[in-house]
From TrEMBL:
Protein's recorded name: Response regulatory domain-containing protein
PTM annotation (4-aspartylphosphate): residues: D55
Keyword Membrane attributed: no
GO biological process, one term: phosphorelay signal transduction system
Residues covered by the Response regulatory domain: 6-120
InterPro entries reported in the protein's UniProt record: Bact_response_regulator, CheY-like_superfamily, Sig_transdc_resp-reg_receiver
UniProt entry tagged with the keyword Phosphoprotein: yes
A Pfam family hit: Response_reg
Species this chain originates from: Candidatus Shapirobacteria bacterium RIFOXYB1_FULL_38_38
Keyword terms: Phosphoprotein
Length: 128
């Protein structure tokens, strides 16, 4: 039995979350979405994603800050991080926080799937 790769998507826009989830689930991935960044650490532990997608501009904790937490943690730093934003500064912010990639909103279905596949490792990162 093949284990589906797990993707965690964090965005404060429910419409964006739902669209991303539908596309990725239809493409064969297991997807968990959260709207509040304060749920992030709990979900990282319980869901154990193989890739994380973060909206840069969220209330309370930014995607940039969450990316830094992932990349600064020895147990998590190998998990690919893709930043999402409509900002023209997305590429610069991605480099600054050491994200693996970024997508500029709006993006199409093909760009989303291609970016996810390009950044996923060939096997799950965190399995117990």
């Amino acid at each position: 039995m093949v284990t589906k790769q797990r993707i965690l998507v964090v965005d404060d826009d429910s419409g964006v979350l739902e669209a991303i989830k539908i596309i990725l689930v239809d493409s064969g991935f297991k997807v968990k979405t959260i709207m509040r960044a304060d749920e992030f650490e709990k979900v990282m532990t319980s869901f154990r994603p193989d890739l994380v997608m973060l909206d840069i501009w969220m209330p309370k904790i930014s995607g940039e800050e969450l990316c830094r937490k992932i990349k600064g943690n020895d147990d998590l730093k190998k998990i690919p991080v893709v930043l999402l934003s409509a900002s023209n500064r997305t590429e610069k912010i991605s480099k600054k926080c050491k994200a693996d990639d970024y997508l500029t909103k709006p993006f199409d279905m093909e760009d989303l799937i291609e970016t996810v596949k390009r950044n996923l490792l060939p096997f799950p990162v965190l399995k117990v």
